[in-house]
Write a structure and sequence with these properties.
The chain is mainly alpha-helical. It has one domain: Hypothetical protein, domain 2 (Endonuclease III, domain 1). The protein contains eleven helices and two strands; from the N terminus they run ααααααααβααβα.
Length: about 200
């Protein structure tokens, strides 16, 4: 029996920026609350678009949204929305622009209860990344019952653009779920990181 061929997950294609994201970011467990907040917001921006579109704009987003510092964004208002709608470096959709500001307020409201954002998220997987063992991309789900539950809970807290599909993409990206195909070299790397992860 021939050993399984080692190859990257096919979704990253041949784009150098996408390959770098796949190899160095996607699936690696993230514990920092602000980084998790940024990624959740950016995943929401991709609704109706490809993730590569947002990835190519990530630096512009970081500049436009003050490195996604919730304590800054929560104080923004209508004038800031108007300013952001003129920024060609981001997706100029008013609801999406407003969602990041609203998400910052929801983030601060959650943390005001004594619940850290990272701990809130990671308790859905009991602090341990879920390691899946898919061999083909068709088997990887677009969402799960768990992402649906987290989506509903985030919406109750006031977060926007956090549907169950967006939330599952987020969970995959920040390593709550390891969905690298088992023949992908990053599957084992992310699995090793998961074994030592704590949040």
């Amino acid at each position: 029996m021939n050993p399984m061929k080692t190859e990257r997950c096919g979704w990253c294609g041949s784009d150098p920026q996408y390959i770098d994201y796949h190899d160095r970011v996607w699936g690696r467990p993230v514990s920092d609350s602000q980084q998790l907040f940024e990624k959740l917001c950016l995943d929401g921006q991709q609704a109706g678009l490809s993730w590569l579109t947002i990835l190519r704009k990530q630096e512009h987003y970081s500049a436009a949204y003050q490195d996604f510092r919730p304590e800054v964004l929560a104080g923004w208002g209508d004038e800031d929305v108007v300013r952001l709608m003129k920024n060609p470096g981001i997706v100029r959709n008013r609801l999406k622009v407003q969602s990041i500001i609203g998400n910052a307020r929801a983030y601060l409201e959650l943390e005001s209860t004594g619940q850290a954002f990272n701990q809130f998220l990671w308790r859905y997987v009991e602090g341990n990344p879920i390691v899946n063992h898919f061999t083909n991309a068709e088997a990887v789900p677009a969402f799960t019952a768990l992402s649906d539950t987290l989506s509903k809970d985030l919406k109750k807290l006031g977060f926007n653009f956090v549907g169950k599909t967006i939330v599952y993409a987020f969970m995959q990206a920040v390593g709550m779920v390891n969905d690298h195909l088992i023949q992908c070299p990053q599957h084992q790397q992310c699995k090793a990181l998961a074994s030592t992860f704590s949040c």
